[in-house]
Amino acid sequence: xxxxxxxxxxxxxxxxxxxxxxxxxxxxxxxxxxxxxxxxxxxxxxxxxxxxxxxxxxxxxxxxxxxxxxxxxxxxxxxxxxxxxxxxxxxxxxxxxxxxxxxxxxxxxxxxxxxxxxxxxxxxxxxxxxxxxxxxxxxxxxxxxxxxxxxxxxxxxxxxxxxxxxxxxxxxxxxxxxxxxxxxxxxxxxxxxxxxxxxxxxxxxxxxxxxxxxxxxxxxxxxxxxxxxxxxxxxxxxxxxxxxxxxxxxxxxxxxxxxxxxxxxxxxxxxxxxxxxxxxxxxxxxxxxxxxxxxxxxxxxxxxxxxxxxxxxxxxxxxxxxxxxxxxxxxxxxxxxxxxxxxxxxxxxxxxxxxxxxxxxxxxxxxxxxxxxxxxxxxxxxxxxxxxxxxxxxxxxxxxxxxxxxxxxxxxxxxxxxxxxxxxxxxxxxxxxxxxxxxxxxxxxxxxxxxxxxxxxxxxxxxxxx
Length: 466
Fold this sequence. Notes:
Elements: E1 8-13, H1 23-27, E2 35-37, E3 42-47, H2 52-65, H3 75-84, E4 99-100, H4 102-110, H5 114-136, E5 141-145, E6 148-156, E7 159-163, H6 172-185, E8 189-193, H7 199-208, E9 212-214, H8 218-227, E10 243-245, H9 250-259, E11 264-265, E12 273-278, H10 284-295, E13 302-307, H11 310-325, H12 331-340, E14 343-346, H13 350-360, E15 364-368, H14 372-378, E16 384-387, H15 393-397, E17 424-432, H16 439-451, H17 455-462
């Protein structure tokens, strides 16, 4: 896979400027916040999710981590980059290492309140139960073939690398979603990387069972997991990972595009998205809250409303204006910027709503309509589906069970979210026990090889003739 296979979403909005978002928009009930679009104005244009500047910077960092072209990262080089880019956190001083000890993670977990520990443990249990069920859904297979047997074996990769963002907000949920899933797949060794990990992040690492926690982020974290880190005087070697998963910033995405092939990756994620299909039966307050919840992720997040009812669009817009205005900072400003790029689409009926949604293949798809289950089943392209008024997308974010690491940018047209399958290998095998019984297969192989002009293949098959 090349890096252009995972792409981010750009909505081509023809001949229409984005809705202005100023302070007065929050206080004026007559000024629409969500830009209105027609179904024909909304198209999917595919763009590369890898920022060219970030790609060059990530490449330089990966080279710096392995001085002299070494196979593994130097611990001294990794620590130098981590210090320079602020991964260690000022509270750790100059003595911090790139590895967080297991005792620190346990201490962070023990330091939580009883309610916090309970919620973290509950979320862990639900995510694990779902991931375990996924793992049970795929098994070894054996079938008869002429003269013998064939089949496949399902086995986990040896080492998994999991990334959890550490930027504006700590994301312990991402720790659980990645580490627990790797564990459920059966990976014997799991590495977690997160810059300036907050106590709640370390607590999540403890309850999820990460073997190693790296106090690094960005491209340097991806490099450390992809190439491994040599042992130092006091810190054991960190082995290279076979697959790296988890969302991150543009340097994480760029670095994942570089190491892809050296190891596996889950996806190259672009800006986060939600699309809500609703009709006149929807609750405008709830729809608005869900749009805002997505918008506060990032200034480039997308919140899209698709409906067959003009009145519900107007009511949702009024609610969005009111609710955004009540958010604290920096959430209010972040959501406001994201809503500049967000929009509402009025369709002639629910079928056209489904068509628009399938065209965009959103990361998160909510259906809040009459017969929501039926409408959801008619939708073909999405990362995660959330059916009905009570099924908030944020419940998926925080561990209802299914993974919250989902395909963005229209890639839900051909792939799905993070699951145990990202960490599993399905390897085929075959065996011939009866030479006479396989002769028809031998003759077919001889004939096909010569039709393809591969004489060596034909003679290899002929050597098996009786």
